[in-house]
Structures are given as structure tokens and as C-alpha cells.
Amino acid sequence: MHDLYAVLGVKRSADATEIKSAYRRLARQYHPDVNPDPAAARKFAMLNEAYHILSDPARRTWYDRTGSTEGANLISKNNHMSVQAMRAARRAFYQARADRIVNEWLERERIETKARGKAVYTTVTLFLSTFVIAMTKPNLLETAGLFWRVAMVILFAAGVWHLVSSLKQHFDYYTYPATRSRSSASKARPRFTRGVAWAFVIGGYLVSFGAGILIDSLTNISMELFGPTTTLNDALFGVILFPPIAVLIVDMMYRINLRFEEL
What we know:
By secondary structure, the chain is mainly α. Helix content is 80%, strand content 2%. The chain has 2 domains: 4-83, DnaJ domain (Helix Hairpins, Orthogonal Bundle); 99-262, no CATH class.
């Protein structure tokens, strides 16, 4: 077995810089592209083996202790396998972390989309039903029988409870009290003060009512639908009675649709 230090022409105490310099100097001399002599090719192979063992601290320590190049090569393979295993574990860790972040983002987006949809259905139904009732001025309570009057009163009570509960839920999700600063509120979604939210709901309700009255005054739709007996009092009574019922019905249909989508 040849002496690796002798192959490179360095002392056993040579440091990494001396070993590298000796290898480069001899490699230029014995490289097959420079020296076509077959003996030079064998010499170059020995130089490569010596350099790769002596330039690796763990392999060099093994070689110095045992004088065996086979054991040093085995250490190199084990080290290479360990590095590969560490890299694979690191990739798996970062991949799992990325997957978790994406899943959390998708879940937040799903919750946000669901909450936004419920808020939109509630407010749009409230405003649209108010507009339609103010425009048509239905006098259904006067023409309906006792059974339907009782049914509408029960639906009205349930609708008011549902409307108040829904608005409270939306306010809790999207607004913060005026006594708190915006910076202290959650930045994960748009947030407004309770006053702004109430102004939006009440303002939208009044604008819808006014728009309905204006359209009816220009087109006389209520007279064509329910006759000349319809009055402004019918509109005032209707926009109190019917919008909560409309919100209740539309929200129930929206929830049923969500249940079917989750199946």
C-alpha cells in the first residue's frame, strides 16, 4: 500500500493549504490531457485518491491512525449518506411547514369567504326587501285571513330575533368598539368601528326606503299591484314587518345551500 503523503510529496504534518498546493502542482504535471504516458494516468489516479483522503479531516484522521485507505473511503461514503439524510430531513421539514402554512391560509380564507357571504346576504336582503316593500306598499295584513296574520306575526318575531343575532355576529367579526384603537384590533381582516357599521346598516335601510318611495311616486307601481287604497302608512308598516321575514328566509336558504356544498 502506497504512502499518501509520499504520493503528494508532503510531510505528515502538512496542513490543508500545503496539501492542496501540492496536489494542484502535481495534477498539472500528470493530468492525462497534458501527459499521455499511461504511467502518468496511474500516477494521476493516485494523486486524486491521496488528495481526497488527506483533504477530508475525518478520512485523514482514520488514515493516520490505521494506514488504511479503504476505511477512509468508507467514512466518506457514510458522511455522504449522512449529509444526504440531513438534507432529505430538512427538505421534509420545510415542505411540511409550507404545507401547514398553506392549509392554514386556505382554512382562514374559507372562514373569511363564509363570513363575508353571510354578511352580504343579510345586508343585501334587508336593503332590497325594504326597497321593494316601500315601492309596492303591500297591504297583505288587511286582506289576509286570521291564520296568515298569525303566521306573519310569528315569522316577524323569528325574523327580528334572527336579524339581531346575525347583525351582532357580523359586528363581532368585522368591527371593534370605538374605545379601542385600530392597531389593537385584528389585522387579519378589514375592521371598522361599531359606529361606522351601524351608520352603514341604518343609512342603507333609510336609503332603500326612500328610493322605493321615490320610484313608486314616479311609476305608481303600488297602485297597479294593490289598488288605490295603498298609502304611505302601508309602506311604513311593511318595511317594519316584511324585511326581517325576508332576511330570515334568505339566510335559511343560504345555510341549506352551504350544507349541500359540504356534503
